[in-house]
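We recall that each integer encodes one residue's backbone shape. We quote one record:
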Amino acid sequence: MPSLTSLAEEALVQAKKLDEHLLSQGRQHTSFEHDTLIELPPDLVEAQEALVNSAHTLKRLALRPEGVLAEIMWNCADEVSLGAINEFRLADHVPPTGSTTFRDIASSSRLPENLVERLMRHAMGNHIFTEKEPGQVQHTASSSLLATDADLSDTIAMVAQEIWQVCTRAVDAMKLYPDSQEPSETAFSLINKPGVPMFAFLAEHPERARRFGSAMSYFARLKSFDINHLIHGYP
């Protein structure tokens, strides 16, 4: 295992490559407000991925074993705030530029102000929205996507309302159906309609099927879901 210093130095090498590219293109440094790491050439995509991997490994080592387990355990809290913000369309109530208040967001979304404040401030810990001045909410690059990308919104809803619930029953399904390969013996079936496979169930629920299709369209846009990974990974 590399030392903390060597991991940090490797991350620095990749970060410098990306910064130099942005400078050569006349772009500002990337930030949570402005994503400028777009349309990168293949060699810089590799640098970006290497930076992410080095930073992730460095963070996990610095957290120590118990910290790593605690972080994984409490990821559900991030899902709650993101899922709620998406469900209640809170991003739609923040102007594309400038700021608004928690009170105005609560009024236009018809939610209690204290609930809006708690959800959005929790999300701000993940750089979804920002509060540069007390009580004034502005968009970040991530929160802007919630307001403008319909496929992404459907994907978040599917994960929050479908996949997350399935995850809570996965162990139950393992106990009930050890080694089963049957599509009707799954956590999804336990939650929704025992004995019925997922796609048969979705055929009976058009809106959920539409949302699933929208999420698949979103995933198809991502390079991490490119079919080439399957082709080259299993030649």
